[in-house]
Structure prediction request, 344 residues.
Amino acid sequence: MVQKMDSIVLANRPLGDAELGNFRLETAELPQPGPNEFLARTIWLSLDPYMRGRMNDTKSYSPPVGIDETMEGGCVAEVMESNNPDYSVGDIILDRLGWTSHGISKGIGVRKIDPIIAPISSNLGVLGMPGLTAWVGLNDILEAQPGETIVISAATGAVGSLAGQLAKLKGMRVIGIAGGYDKTQYAINELGYDVCIDHKSASLHELRKQISVAAPNGVDCYFENVGGKTLEAILPLLNTFARIALCGMIAWYSPEATKTAGPIPTVWGAILRQRLRVRGFIIFDHYDRLDAFLEEVAPMVSNGTIKYKETISLGLSSAPQSFLDLLEGKNFGKQLVRVGNDPK
Prediction:
């Protein structure tokens, strides 16, 4: 058995945009599980935009990653040794081991994975945290209804791609915003969006005009994953009493990007005049909805009704660059790192 493990730690905090120098690869002896613990090897590592916030030493909904600590993240892993009666050698699990090749777990908050339902990697994407985020945002936060018009930013990302498909299945008019021709065509031709607009090829005013044409009756729901120019473009187009599900703001995760953000009075004024309902939500507050989500969505993933896409990099050492690419929107669908081989 392998006697060493690799981990990627936070070497220092970003002063502006995150960069490769903020990370460091370390090798250590393989730990041994204690009482009621198990040792697992990582197969798939999830990379997600929220991780950028964990690199900052600021107050948030979760503590920041400490300097020299392993970067935080969800993993699909295989149990190798176990002193925990609930987990056996060979079990495939979903756990938050972080950016590491191996990890020790007590089994708290761990979910066993059934590899028959769908490929195990899907438990980090369409059947995992991003998928639950899409489902909760659409159903619980937006309370989306058939016949309404919804706009979804980052329309082909891990969250947006499922939100768009579920909205279409509800009978909504679905408008996506994505970055690049290939992504917009994928959203329309594969995911079933009515319209998808390329924000990279449009100025703020052009983007607003294109959304207006696509939504002649205005916009009832906005699934916000981005912030930035997209939010500024859509605000005046939201109907009275429209709802916004504030899931992320990747355009503003860099301190430098906030310097060109629209003024707060513009946003606050739109919320007041249009009587908008804006609700931020963190998916960790909604895991009581996991069973209902899986009951509805897992069969549709299994039978091919729901489509999903993954961008995969190879090897734990590729995680930092892949993460930086994710923050720049270079991924297509869910960003994953293959750390180990699938179980035999």
Notes: The two ends are 15 Å apart (CA to CA). Residues 240 and 272 are 10 Å apart (CA to CA). Residues 4-121+309-338 form a domain with the Quinone Oxidoreductase; Chain A, domain 1 fold (CATH 3.90.180.10).
